[in-house]
């Protein structure tokens, strides 16, 4: 479990997080939903340890926070490498055995339907393919905690389905997943819980069973009214 207690974060004259309290269960997929500027990215950056909260605690219980996979808003990629070269570099930096990582790279390229783009320079890839590459780099070392900030930008429906399969696969293998999104067209198929971040606090948390039987349009309309 990840236990977040009374988390506060301020940037200059703006109080972004105003006492966030949240429990995230191990091996679950927990969605943070809110409008732009609600503090989703700030919260996830605090969980990752990329920025330090002003007040409050983040406790990791039975989760190795050092085995972390991250996808943040901007694609942190190396443009002059091909997709395959980049993943090989990531695997070598993470000290993954070569025989193993060759198989892993091939698996993800097939799973995410990269095709010939695996040998394309990153600077020439589409936004959606870069998003898939970023996700692959974040999970190839089998993290215990996966933090995804708007990971679906630029994905078409086929790529979205492939990406959701990868995320669900990670959760099924014991990984705890926290993701932020403003999209609602897939939530019922992936989430275990969803928390509304509003005015710097968690306004409400819903279990996936709350949305059982609801159509995607109904879920979207309901959630938009909550923020």
Could you state the CATH homologous superfamily of the largest domain? Answer: P-loop containing nucleotide triphosphate hydrolases
Sheet-strand content, in percent, reads 25-35%
Which blocks of ≥5 consecutive residues have pLDDT under 50?
A: none
How many domains comprise the coordinates? Answer: 2
* SSE-based structural type: alpha/beta
Largest sheet: 6 strands, mixed
Number of strands: 9
CATH class of the largest domain: Alpha Beta
Query: Helix-strand pattern, N to C?
Result: EEEHEEHHHEHEEEH
Principal-axes shape call? globular
End-to-end C-alpha gap: 26 Å
Describe this structure in words.
The mean pLDDT is 93. The protein is of the alpha/beta class and 227 residues long. It is globular. Helices cover 33% and strands 26% of the residues. The longest helix is centred in the C-terminal third of the chain and has 16 residues. This is ABC-2 type transport system ATP-binding protein. Pfam families: ABC_tran (PF00005). Belongs to the ABC transporter superfamily. Keywords: ATP-binding, Nodulation, Nucleotide-binding, Transport.
Fold blueprint:
Blueprint: E1 2-11, E2 14-24, E3 29-33, H1 40-48, E4 55-60, E5 68-71, H2 83-93, H3 98-111, H4 127-139, E6 145-149, H5 157-172, E7 176-181, E8 193-198, E9 201-207, H6 216-226
Parallel strand pairs: 3-7, 3-8, 5-6, 6-7
Antiparallel strand pairs: 1-2, 1-4, 8-9
Helix pairs in contact: 2-3
